[in-house]
């Protein structure tokens, strides 16, 4: 099966959206009229068509598939669009946006979705909102709360910066080809009152804690050389497990190392 006479490539993780109503709902959720927009992996332009209709101030498309470039160029011919024929993981977001704020929309390739998300999170000062499609299980991990089996590193790092909400579930039948899993769209709104922290330290500390998520955290606390007095002040006990610690507590732990 094809979209716009372009067959999806498995090596690029391509699953093209084919339901225009779903595409419209995703774009409308972002409230992007007259704003700067960045789309990662537009493919054959299922979302791009609706983005263009919103008349964004500036539009950046990042697409690694050379077969899609001409189609996207024609689709955006009457817009202030720049198309980067590149892998999003290799691009410097600060450089291509010139430090301006852009709202991100993307139907992410499943196999690199977490990696792209972490890259976006590290440039949160550029991106006031993210509107991203994930495999359903990944979306549930991102939005999970403490004391939930799905709660993990992605939950903590994402929620330290953004309010994260699943607003749309998308069945596999809405894609070409139909994947073996369902999808969900997460809307990220940058927090205005987020605590200050070093994201690299938060990445490190969550990696250490969730490496043994079912075990008590006492050994990890000793490894990180965190004093009991400091831990008591933020309500963290050696008998707790990684999934019991709140996002705010993880931020405070990161600020102690």
Q: Low-confidence spans: pLDDT under 50, at least 5 residues?
A: none
- Report the strand count: 9
- Supply the helix-strand structural class: alpha/beta
**Run of helices and strands:** EHEHEHEHEHEHHEEEHHHH
Helix content: 25-40%
* CATH topology category name of the largest domain: Rossmann fold
- Domain unit count: 2
Provide the β-strand percentage band: 15-25%
Provide a descriptive summary of the structure in words.
- The chain has 257 residues and is α/β, with parallel strands linked by helices.
- It folds into 2 domains: 10-190, Vaccinia Virus protein VP39 (Rossmann fold, 3-Layer(aba) Sandwich); 199-254, Helicase, Ruva Protein, domain 3 (Orthogonal Bundle).
- The chain contains 11 helices and 9 strands.
- The protein has helices at residues 20-30, 48-53, 69-75, 93-97, 113-121, 136-143, 153-161, 199-210, 218-223, 228-233, 247-254; strands at 16-17, 36-40, 58-62, 81-84, 103-107, 129-135, 162-170, 175-176, 183-190.
- The strands form 2 sheets. The protein has a 7-stranded mixed beta sheet.
- Helix 5 links the parallel strand 5 (103-107) and strand 6 (129-135).
- Helix 5 runs parallel beside helix 7, helix 7 (153-161) crosses helix 11 and helix 8 crosses helix 11.
- The protein is elongated and about 60 Å long.
- It starts with 15 loop residues before the first strand and ends with a helix.
- The mean pLDDT is 91.
């Amino acid at each position: 099966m094809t979209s716009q006479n372009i067959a999806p490539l498995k090596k690029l993780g391509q699953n093209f959206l084919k339901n225009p109503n779903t595409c419209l709902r995703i774009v409308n959720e972002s409230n992007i009229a007259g704003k700067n927009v960045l789309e990662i992996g537009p493919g054959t332009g299922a979302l791009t068509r609706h983005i263009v209709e919103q008349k964004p101030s500036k539009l950046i498309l990042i697409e690694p598939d050379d077969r899609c470039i001409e189609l996207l160029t024609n689709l955006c011919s009457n817009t202030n669009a720049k198309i980067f024929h590149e892998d999003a993981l290799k691009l410097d977001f600060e450089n291509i946006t010139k430090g301006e704020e852009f709202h991100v929309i993307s139907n992410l390739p499943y196999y690199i979705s977490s990696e792209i998300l972490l890259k976006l999170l590290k440039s949160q000062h550029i991106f006031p909102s993210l509107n991203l499609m994930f495999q359903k299980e990944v979306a549930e991990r991102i939005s999970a709360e403490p004391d939930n089996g799905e709660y993990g590193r992605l939950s903590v790092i994402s929620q330290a910066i953004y309010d994260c909400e699943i607003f749309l579930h998308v069945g596999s039948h809405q894609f070409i080809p139909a994947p073996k899993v369902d999808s969900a769209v997460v809307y990220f709104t940058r927090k205005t009152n987020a605590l200050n922290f070093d994201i690299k330290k938060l990445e490190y500390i969550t990696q250490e804690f969730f490496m043994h998520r079912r075990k008590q955290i006492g050994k990890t606390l000793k490894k990180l050389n965190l004093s009991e007095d400091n831990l008591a002040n933020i309500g963290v006990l050696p008998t707790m497990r990684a999934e019991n610690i709140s996002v705010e507590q993880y931020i405070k732990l990161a600020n102690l190392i």
